[in-house]
Structure formats: structure tokens, C-alpha cells
Known about the structure:
By secondary structure, the chain is mainly α. It has one domain (2-282). Helices cover 63% and strands 0% of the residues. The chain is built from 15 helices and no strands. Helix 1 (2-17) packs across helix 2, helix 2 packs antiparallel against helix 3 (46-62) and helix 9 (161-168) crosses helix 10. The chain is globular and about 65 Å long. The two termini are 35 Å apart.
Amino acid sequence: MKEKMNEELQVLVDKATAGDKDALETLIASVQDIVFNLSLRMLGTFADAQDATQDILLKVITHLSSFRGESSFSTWVFCIAANHLKNYKKHMFAHYPLSFEYYGNDIQNGKVEDVPDLTQNVEKDILAEELKMSCTNVMLQCLDTESRCIFILGTMFKIDSRIAGDILKITPEAYRQRLSRIRKKMAGFLGEYCGEYGNGRCKCRERVNYAIQNHRINPLQLDYMAATEIPVQTMIDVKNAMEDIDDLSQDFSFCKPYQSPERMRHLLQEFLDSTQLSIIQKS
């Protein structure tokens, strides 16, 4: 089954590199959500993730002729995406880095009770859910880029340690050891501070107004609540041409996958329809 999928993908790649636009669209559509979700977790915001996803998919298109089928197509795309994102410097948290110490101090000492109602008639439960998704995603930015990538590949995408090692250019053993340490670190922080996933004092509903005041969520622009959530299994199915997942595929329930935003899909379609694409394909 897996070999058949790889053969079908290789046929699509061959057609796409020969100038078949429909084949190219099919290929890009097959990995677009994977790239967006990896970008969202690595960079922390929807806006930065959209920009990075477009850059990565452009790289995939322009380097398509170099795909030799030595790995699955999705693994090859992961390599391009991971390398791009680890070195990406245009996102907000590259300019304003976070740490677990800062996050913990904000939870312990933030003057939550002193903030007036800033909800602008948006239901507080909705804002609390937006904050929960935003907060846990931004918390990933407390990890260094390599650790963040390891955590995301292991917990959200459930990638086998051999494949993840190839993507990150480390041994499977080193990947498993680091993933275990990072998971313990994340679980320890959540257990100590977070009232949603652990026993901490931080409750999303109580911090909604504080988060709005500090521009962490915007009642008039709810990125997570507006996004189309897709089943976790869908993400696994998309990359199932890889090796079987291993026993490190523990769930962290806040790592929810989302469909790439409609605006980004339109921009990508415009590019696929443009004369610029034909110039790139002929170069």
C-alpha cells in the first residue's frame, strides 16, 4: 500500500515537473495543511505561519525536480519546512523571545484582577478558549527552535524517530532522548502553572481581560476560533507514507491541527495560475 502511494506520488511529481499544473496543485494541496500547522507551532501566530507557509510551498515548487523518491514526498517536504522554519527570523518571537521563567513570572505576578472588562460583548467562554489555544501555542516559543521542532514532530505529527532524525540530522537515539526530556519539561511547566492542563493557578477565563490588555488576544480577531479544526487523524493519514509511528507518539491535547486559512489558499492559487509559475518551471 505504502509503495503504491509512493509510486503514485512520484508520477504526480514527474507530471508536475513536466509542467502539468493539475498535478502540481494536487501535490501542493496534499501537504499544504501539514506545512501550515508545522509553521503555526514553530512561529506562534497565524500571520507569521501564513507567510512562512507560502515561502515553504514556493521552495517545494521550485525544488520539485530535485525530489528523487529516496524518501516519501511528505518526508521530503518536512525536511524543507523544518530547515526553513528553524532559520526563519521574520516572525514576532524572533524579535521578542520568550522563556519559561518569563511565562511563569507573568502567571504568578500578573495583576489580573485590576483589569476592566475589555471583552467588547464577545462571550467570555469563547475568549477563554481562544486564549487557551493561543497561550499553549505561544508557550512553545519558550523552547529553543531545535527543541520546539523535536516536540512538534513527536507530539503533533507523531513522526517515527528514524524519520525525525533524518529531518533534523540527528540520530534516532538522540531524537528520542531529547523528545523525552522536552516532554518532561513541558509537562512539568503545565503541571505547575496551568489550571487547564495541570494543577496551577492560571485559569484562562480569569485571565481573558488581562490577555486582551496585553494584546495577546483580540476580541475582534479570533484566529483560533475562526480557524477550521481538522481531525488529528487526518494529519496522520496525510503523512502515512512515512514509516510506522513509534511508542513516543503521546498526545498533548492542545496540539490541535487547523486547515490553512482561506486567504492563504487564494494567494497560493493565484500564484499557481500566474505567469510567474511558468517562468519558474522553465528556469
